[in-house]
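Sample pair:
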Amino acid sequence: MLTFSVTLVRHGETQYNRDKLLQGQGVDTLLSPTGVDQCEAVGRRLSDVPFSHVFVSNLQRAVQTAEIILRNNAHCSHMDMALEPLLRERGFGVAEGRPKEDLKNMANAAGQACRDYTPPGGETLDQVRLRFKQFLRVLFQQMLDSHDASKLDDSSSATGSPDDGLHGASIHVLVVSHGAYIRVAVRHLVEDLKCTLPAGLKPSQLFSPCPNTGISRFVLTVSRSGPESRATLTAARCVFTNRKEHLEELAEKEV
């Protein structure tokens, strides 16, 4: 068995985020100046985490975010990242590039909740969930193929405090993606894969929208099973979701 932490980070702010416009997959923009500052802040927050693998959506805003995080990291500043199309934002079809209010109006006209509505040419939530499940299969297999679990000593690389999800895990994975995608990913981990939750965590906190550079962390255990020795999840724990304390220093500067 192999136990590792997964740190999910949403990309920093873009001008489209600031203007409340949908980006999806078809609008591929860079970070705004505020977004760069947010990424520097989250990079400092994660600077002591010895990431051994970095998976990033291949959209520019996610790649730029990951580059800034790695540049601030004390252990892996020169690490190569794996650009992964499976981590791209949910596709919003004809609504991309348009105000979010337009999506709400489309959903209302169709008699559906905005979160559940799929605009023409867009991805359904089930399609996004399938992409995340495919990514997990890639991740699990790579973890087991890259590391000999029998030779790992969990205590040797334990870092941080017991409540941050790093203590006791030998491997740490950084995943940089997008808001709508991360929301689907968290739901899949919690509702479908039945990961354990921290005491006192409210559902409103768990499934709330992820802010720009918000951090979520899970600890996963995988093993090989079946005649083909396929990678299988055997345990999952949610440590926290949507943390944004690192952004407080930016808010103080703006005051």
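Strands lie at 2-10, 53-56, 82-83, 171-177, 215-225, 230-243.
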